[in-house]
Design a protein that fits this description.
Layout (H helix, E strand, L loop, with lengths): L1 E10 L6 E11 L4 E5 L6 H9 L5 E6 L2 E2 L8 E5 L10 H11 L5 H11 L12 H14 L4 E5 L7 H14 L5 E5 L3 H4 L5 E6 L2 E7 H7 L3 H8 L6 H15 L1
Parallel strand pairs: 3-8, 3-9, 6-7, 7-8
Antiparallel strand pairs: 1-2, 1-4, 4-5, 9-10
């Protein structure tokens, strides 16, 4: 289990201070598919990077009760649209590199996903399109052999059919011990794929619910999100009315 206890992260100094995470406490057991939601700047990416140790933070993050260090970091993989591969290396070269450094690297899964996305084995990754680069990030994260797979907006630049098909493939290949934490804005696309939704707002967790609980209450994920964020459906009508009145006044 990954557990966060009172995790805080602040960017900037006294004049540019931004509280990205504010006393975030969260438990992420193995075998879950968790959707991490929130507006831009809510703290989703920061939370993931703190788990990975990319950022310094206050509080505590553990993996099965132990600090996350070089000894156990291989149990966590990360697919980021900021890209973490070697641009001059081919996909085949990446697979060989990962197999050398990660004993649990799955060549079988790698080949299946490369064929699914129809990516070239022998072209340098820098020649891939943006969408293909994001697909490749996901492939490497899925094949590393990690127990926890973190995905930060993994399908930017991909069409809806590729995304929908991949969710189906992912459900079919995940092992019972594998956990996916997926940060995305595509709520309605992943509603039937995730088992739990965690909502962030201004660096705080404001919602945490399973899809089973939503079904039992007769609510959709979008209903829950709008309710949690106090979404005002009348604000569009209000601004259009104000603009209309202004134009008439002119």
């Amino acid at each position: 289990m990954i557990e966060l206890k009172d995790v805080c992260k602040v960017y900037g100094g006294s004049y540019t201070r931004k509280e990205a995470l504010n006393k975030v406490s969260l438990k992420l057991p193995q075998g879950e598919i968790v959707g991490l939601f929130g507006e831009n700047g809510a703290g989703k990416t920061t939370l993931m990077k703190c788990i990975l140790g990319y950022l310094k933070y206050d509080g505590e993050i553990t993996l099965d009760g132990e600090p996350i260090t070089t000894k156990n970091i291989a149990r966590i993989s990360f697919a980021t649209n900021e890209h973490s591969f070697f641009p001059g290396l081919t996909a085949k070269g990446h697979a060989e590199f990962y197999a050398e450094h990660f004993p649990k690297f799955s060549e079988k899964r790698f080949k299946a996903l490369m064929d699914f996305f129809e990516l070239s084995y022998n072209a340098p990754i820098r020649h891939f399109s943006t969408g293909q680069k994001n697909q490749f990030e996901v492939i490497m994260a899925m094949c590393q052999g990690a127990d926890y797979i973190l995905m930060d907006e993994p399908f930017a630049g991909n069409d809806v059919f590729n995304r929908e098909d991949f969710y189906k493939v992912l459900l079919g290949i995940l092992e019972p011990h594998e956990t996916v934490i997926l940060s995305t804005h595509l709520l309605e696309e992943v509603e039937n794929f995730i088992g739990r939704a965690v909502l962030l707002h201004n660096g705080r967790i404001v919602g945490d619910v399973t899809t089973t609980e939503l079904e039992e209450s007769g609510r959709t994920l979008m209903d829950y999100v709008k309710e949690t964020y106090n979404y005002r459906s009348d604000r569009v009508v209000k601004v259009l009315r104000e603009l209309s009145d202004t134009e008439k006044g002119n």
